[in-house]
Structures are given as C-alpha cells and as structure tokens.
Amino acid sequence: MSGGRAGDSDGRVSAQRDVHVRLDEFAWQALEEESERLGVPVEDFVSFSVLYYLADVDSGRIARRITNSPFPEGGS
Fold it and tell me: In terms of pTM, does the model score above 0.70?
C-alpha cells in the first residue's frame, strides 16, 4: 500500500509511504474474501479501508479499544 505522488495538482506536498501489517491467517482470508466479493485488488481494498477509518476517526463511532468480552462495558 502506498500514498500519492509528491506535489499533487492542488499544491499540497505528499510523499509515498509503505505500510507493513502482519495478519494472522483468519484476518488475511477475510480481507481476500471481501476484496474478491467486491471485485477489487486486496491492496485497493486495504487502502480504501485505511482512508475510510482515518476520515471517520474523530466521529466517536470508531472502537478505540477491542475487548474480549461479548458484552458492552458495564454489562454482564
């Protein structure tokens, strides 16, 4: 996965970045299956997912912490 080219047309300067993520077999298989279902390469699916997350990170809807409990905090 990589970023845009330096000096985009709107005058902003950006740089190419590479991100390496280690996934277990279950996570990788889920990514492959969903990208296949959507008909897009895995790299494009992951890039879009990261951008979607970053665009929504301040909305309060993003899980800040993953819990092992099947119940919401405070529930039992």
Answer: no
